Amino acid sequence: MKNKDFYQLLKKNRRETNGFQYTVPAPGAYPYQWLWDSCFHAIILTHYKINDAKNEIVSLLSKQFENGMIPHIIYWDKKLPGSFPRIIWGKNHTSTITQPPMLAYAVWQIFQKDKDSLFVKKVYSNLYHFYRYLLTERDPHTNHLIGIMNPDESGEDNSPRFDFALNLPPNHTLKENTKKRMHLVKQNIECHFDAPFCMRNFFWVKDVPFNVIMVENLRLLVQLATSLGYSEDAKFFDEQREKIIEAMKKFMYEDDLFWSTFGEDYQKIKIKTWAIFAPLFAKILNQKQAQNLVEKHLLNPKEFWTEFPVPTTSLDEPSFDPSGYWRGPTWIGTNWFIYKGLQNYGFNSIAEEIKRSSVNLLQKSGFREYFNPQTGEGLGAMQFSWCGLVADMD
Questions:
Q1: Contact indicator for 368, 25 with CB cutoff of 8 Å
Q2: What range defines the domain where residue 315 resides?
Q3: Can you tell me the distance from the alpha carbon of 221 to that of 235, in angstroms, rounded to the nearest whole number?
Q4: In a domain, 291, yes or no
Q5: For the chain, how many structural domains are there in total?
Q6: Do the Cβ atoms of 345 and 290 come closer than 8 Å?
Q7: How far apart are alpha carbons 346 and 349 in whole angstroms?
Q8: d(Cα 101, Cα 64) in Å, to the nearest integer?
């Protein structure tokens, strides 16, 4: 597989509507624009055409809400063919929930390639208001953990991390899961997507990966603000970053692992998914903790070290399903997070193993949405743009 293949994949999935250029995750299944997908697409595109990466970000920011939130779906053209279900969100052209805040990371990577301060200045206000929204509306009690009000906001729609909050058993169908999540959308519409009220009354999870991604993106937002001379902003966002780290240690850490929590009392959701490795991405663990995590869990063949690692759910969980969407398959996106995290702690040989495995999956099964971690069989959507993240494993 050649590097140029990844660029050709994204070019095939490129669309232009009303003067905006964006990349769809997969033409047949996901014919619209998604928030964290486009951040990944921008990261990939920095290795090929920097202006394409910038266009990806600009299109996302064009639909930002007045309160600063950026929706997780933009329906540029509802007439596009595709199997994605028609969801009534309460808005005509976008969803009314968000997704993991990878924007600052994508903009920072663009900035590293061409040092274009004018582009950073152009989008900085959007970034400022998005991250301020998350720090306020999604943390109503000022306990410094960001909450989500629907599993879809995690980017991992049916992950077993959310079974308890949805009142679902470990083994259930995707149809049953989708029905619960769509009921949440209905409740969110009724409460006018008032995040503090909706979370308090219907679904309130403080998810580990979401908060880890927030921490790392705040670190890079600090650097972006500093590059523009916005020292007060830089100081503020750095302080918030430290507060989230401390809150994660206080409310999420137990038995040597970070767990997502549910509700006002921060009940820990002790389900082993790839999320236990997410803190590596933002260097939240110390070296000893990281070593223990890698040796005890990542390299454990009874948990996560499969033929094609890393499965999104541990093999010893009752909910594990090797073909069950986010309930077991290997995804290139989560492998990318783990790869970057391992590099942070000097586990370079293990990171290279994950990169090699990711490449092998693509060579064996093509650009698929996700893969059976035991057989390497390609599953889900075809021509899936995330696969290009292998180009950023360096």
A1: no
A2: 279-394
A3: 10
A4: yes
A5: 1
A6: yes
A7: 8
A8: 13
